[in-house]
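Journal club prep, shared notes

We agreed each person brings one worked example of a sequence with its structure written out as tokens. Mine is Carboxy terminal-processing peptidase. I'm keeping it raw so we can talk through how to read the token line rather than staring at a rendered picture. Sequence first:
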Amino acid sequence: MKFKMLVAALAFIATSGCVYADSETISKVDQLGQTQVTQPLLARQSAEMVAGKTELAMSGNLKKPLKQALSPDIEHAKAAIIVSNILTRFEYDKKPLDTKMSNAVFDEYLKMLDPSKMFFLKSDIDKFSAVKDQMNDMLLSGRLQIPFDIFEIYRDRVEQRFDHVLSTLKDDFDFSVDESFELDRKKSKWVETNEEINDLWGKRVKNDYLRLKLAGSTDEKIKETLRKRYINNRNQILRMGNEDVSEMFINAYASSTDPHTNYYSPSSAKNFDVQISLSVEGIGAVLQKRDEYGQIREVVPGGPAAKSGQIQPGDRIVAVGQGPKGPMEDVVDWRLDDIVNKIRGKRGSTVRVEIIPAEGGVDGKQKVVTLVRQKVTLEDQAAKYKIIEIENDGQIQKIAIITIPSFYEDFDARARGENSYKSVTRDVRVILEELNKANIDGVVLDMRNNGGGSLTEAANLSGLFIGGPNPIVQVRTAEGSVSNVRSIKTDMVWDKPLAVLVNRISASASEIFAGAMQDYGRGVVLGDPTWGKGSVQTIRGLNEFLRRPQDEELGSLKWTIQKFFRVNGSSTQVKGIVPDIIFPTMFDAKEMGESSYENAMPWSAIDPASYKPVGDLKPTIVNLSRLHKDRVSESGSWALMKDELDYARKLSDQKVISLNYQTRLEERENMEAQRKDFEARRKELGESDIGNFRLDDGLQAGEGNLKEELANEKKRKDNIDIAAKEAANIVADMVNLK
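Then the structure, token by token:
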């Protein structure tokens, strides 16, 4: 699921022609505003009811945030109406918002809320099913109270489940019983009784407890870790507001039409802009949740926080104030997104952050740091390179490995005409020019885990290796019109040997680039078959769909408008890019990739574009494959990587796990023996101590030792792994075969 979200988040962006909501939709939106003035269209609970809930929430012996009464705002109704109008009229694979779609939206909404079926009872689902056929009418009319009511019941169930398990932590657990816990409950039935669901949660707690116990934690520490974890998990749901609920419900519809169509609330739209542009206006700090605090995880070099010298990784944020003298607002136990929204702001404005310095511990003396927000570039997520020397037939070849995490582009800065706007093509051009000056012999472009990004950048980056303007990809509209997306006018910046390293998570723009290098005979593609995303999305603010844009923020819609095809006519949809030389993989193609979506578009093909390959690598690939096979057959490092990946996949395929301590201890001892064997082989081979297989420590994000985590992250970033080394070997072979 995490990887699927990554691919959706960094989906392929394109510009499209002007489209507008139709007159009927605009009339509905206008009437919403008029109705709200005279008679509330969407019922709200009174302030007294909210206060009553608040008092009840705070009266318990476990700390809880205010539990707000939820109801949709007019802006949410407008967003639902506009999104349903646009998707039924302008999406590539248009689907009517009928009863069939209504049922799909209903199922998707429940899946989003309770994917493991650990909160709702079957009686809840039976109750909700009465409105299963009405989801379409709710979206078309903007009347979203029922989805909000469903969420409130979900929120109550979350509170009940976590309060129950928190009450059990004072008891001792019996790990001598032979029972098991089902890790993957997607296909399980809804539980019917409270006794059954309490038993299910009891097994989950026992598994969480066992994981920490087997990792060496004491009983006292385990209970404290789980207590903080469950309180935090509960409180994050209790803190969800109207915007979160409306976004989730509208997305239940959006993702039911196409896996890569998404609605972004105003807050989420800002986060998406940061992802695609690699820039943000703020203080230059990466945050994580640590217990009830927002914690500084990283300080971005060159940003206001770094320049101040007063903020360090590990510092906990307790309050935020706006301007030089604005009141400090307590942000303890807030959701991370809400803390981030308070800290971000307009460039040049002042923000004051009250922190507990890391070195003082939780009870340390607090201090207030005043910072002026600036535009911060997230260079850590930009293209970078390393040089590796390969000895080949007595000669030394220098091969550069350029890591490209995404196809980023600062659209807004480009639109404003800024000369130095951030983009992956600009960054890689600078790198290639440096490599040419340094007489580097070949390049590996590492696009593993690259989920995509900008269409323009996919084309322009290709131009650095084949020249331009040249057709890079064909796009077809729903009406069947086909056009070419070309690279910019440029000379070939890099004309030496090239390989593209991909994996199952490489998607969209990564697949276009890799496919273009194959079709033009320009580079060799290495790794495992890619994701298989062959569709084009555009993103626009919902206000833009109205002929009379209004002041309120309605969020943005990213929807599928075209299907793309390689210049050879083949789609990458579902099938992805098949590498010229296949590497071992840790991913299960059935669980990961476009083919795992139930509503994915099918593969298809069109006529090839008119293009002229710059080379023919087919004979070379035959020789490269032979040399590769000969080399890895004698490589202890390659065998180690393969064994680690196979073992990790074997463990991940385990869907049911024992809750018997002795059984789990024996399994842990076997895993520890295997880990030691891998470690000894790694040490003997002179490989990095960062392996593909690590023992489970039972911790979730934000619960571990931050210094150790950051040190390990740095190791991973600095390390050249076995697959990347072999990719460099293959490029060195290309140099010799020229």
